[in-house]
Amino acid sequence: MQDANILEAEKINKRYPGVKALDEVDFDLRYGEVQALVGQNGAGKSTFIEIVAGSIQPDSGLITLDGGAHPHLDPSKSIELGIQTVHQENQLVEELSVAENIYLYNLPKTRLGFVKLTTCIEAADNLLGELGIGISSAKKLTELTPVQKKLISIAKAFSRKAKILILDEPTAALDTHGKNILFDIVRRYTKKGLSVIYISHHLGEIFEICDRVTIFKDGRRINTHRVAETDMNVIVKEMIGKSTTSLIIRQTATGLDAGEPSLEVRDYHRQGAVDHVSFSVRQGEIFGIGGLVGAGRTELARMIFGLDEKDSGELVYRNRNITPTDPNDAIRKGIGLLTEDRKENGLVVIRPIFENISLVRFAKNRGAFMHLKRERSDTEAISKQLNVKTPTIAQLVINLSGGNQQKVVLAKWLFAEAEVLIFDEPTIGIDVGSKSEIYGLMDGLAKSGKIIIMISSDNPELISVCDRVGVMRFGKLVAVLDGEQKNEENILKFSMGVDEKDET
Amino acid sequence: MKVNAFSREGLRRRFSQSTMLVIMIVVVAIVATIVNPKFLRITNIINIFQQISVLGIVACGVGMLLVSGYIDISVGAQVSLLGIILSGIIQNVGGIAPDASNGWLQPLAIPMAFVVSFIVGFAMGLVNGIIVIKSRVTSFIITLGFASVYKGIALLVSGGASYMLFGRFEWLGRGRILNVIPIPILFFLGIVVFTHIVLKFFRYGRFLYAIGGNRKAAYVSGINTDGIILRGYVVVGLLNALAALILISRVGSALATTGEAYALDALASVIVGGVAITGGKGTALSFFLGVVLIGLLGNALIIMNVNPYVRDVVIGSIIIIAVSISHITSDGA
Questions:
Q1: What pTM did the predictor assign?
Q2: Does the beta carbon of A365 lie under 8 angstroms from any beta carbon of chain B?
């Protein structure tokens, strides 16, 4: 039974507009095996597991389960076949009890249609006991800690026949104790024949719990190793693949290196999000911040900008304390934040381009009246300068492409004369052409003496655009990479904690 | 993609909201004239405008607030309560009848009514705004609660009875400039112009649009969103005070329910005028046209001898239809 496959995927293809999410992917999972799936953001891991779980249909390819071919999977069919997924985000109802959450799909009912809560709690307590999760199932979900909630999500997957368990970043929400419970469950049940697909960015865990590891990159399966026969460096190299850093458009600002630190970020901290982060940026420098999604980078940016609460932290610009108290204060002190979600926090998309561009400037100014003619001509000029492609600046922002929308956001901050610019994932969802335009603009801004902090999950981008790259992991700034050290391999290693001592 | 005339894109391209409103106004006027030729008489037209002036003033406040995405459904109760307070002052301080002597206070009755009206209007706007902002609950629900509170207070103060002015305070509501143009119309048009200036030329107006379009983005852009919204509610309260003064002066008496209809009528006006219920859109011109349409409809129904209760059905239907259409034609938002 050891080498027989429970799941086989053959030549799976999935294309989205402009991207090949999965490209001829083959995959096999054996009975009783734990197989890790690793890859950088956008490698296709999520798309793949969603195809297995039936929530996304592939364009072509075949999935075979237990020897039977299944060309058309849907979520309920996948579950019926014994494929259970524990998603990264808990899919639980806060207002219900643990027991009700576990059996929500089929609550035991009386003849009159009332829920038999006692039966439900009994069954749930048995299940939790068997799994070794010491939580009373009568409790309401709101009473639980995040760790406990995650364990309940895992227990839910075992409430139904599970032959294949898909765990998507299960340990992100778990502490050491919770992780031990999970690993214990995985070990015991795989002995009984359960197969597990394990997605994680924490390579250490893979060596702890997995039998094999499969590496995805850019929608392709690169390789599969037996964990016992490989090491982290090989995995990291394969995740990066051939270096794609040919798009270098920026020569590291020479001559400025001798300059004094101009902006100092001192001891920014918020419990559970950002862990005592300090760094400094020189005039004319682009400082990158890399790390995994959820490492606390966006939280740090929002705290610096005065948008979110912080426990501690001081921002010093040219030896002057300019720590902002709120966004308005930040703007007055010359700080700008280009948020990662343009439509959510950056733009008023149902208003015209020129109104968006002038918004921060008007928020900064005082005085009741607006000079409309000057507004038109000034915003027109800056939109031309940034090459926003539109017939007229009276056009609504919603009608622009992602790249042009990002230019409008940038125009807004430049128009408000921001000296310190924080870019959070500035090129997400933007076509290649606009990307390089934005890099060019950032380069120009740095050369003109602005201070730029750039958060990105696109590591080649960080390397080519930034002078130095800090890497965050679990809220901490774990490394600042410079010169030769500044390469994809190092960013990835520090992001995932490859060289750290056993972190348990 | 081919654009179907009745698709969202098609609808949006064929009609700008204002032209659509003008067309509707003309249609209503034609139908009313066919049924009753008196409708188009100058005296009737002036009469209609005099009647809609109060609604227009209330609607301008409601409209500016709605541009920021916030609603005040308590405006009808506010106008009623203000009416009770100011007529109570005039009756009690000014004396029952014009010639009744009430000492030196008597000449101060009307100035007092003015001052107190604006203070109370300001206070109601302030309280509404603070609670809406602090509670973070949908403004519709909060102000619905306040509508009940203000109505209750108006009933308590008046004991359910009416106050009479006995012709003591007529010039504001019934006076005419050059014996032709009613003073309320001047106030109405003045407020429309004021609204236009605020929305178009003031930073404050621009911020209303930004907040209505995307409150989070407005805050990140450095706008004091809470302060702007609070001011929006205060403006509503102050305009209600003006509206109540004109209304009570014109009617000559006040009940605790005098202003009730203005809540829905004002909302209906600005919504048919094209303000998105979620905010971010709308102009003073659109408020004006919306008010004219709603006012015209009311008058047309009366002049066509339709059962007055039909009006409620019509106003309610207009709100439902206008909101549904604007939702369908907006960009899926």
A1: 0.81
A2: yes
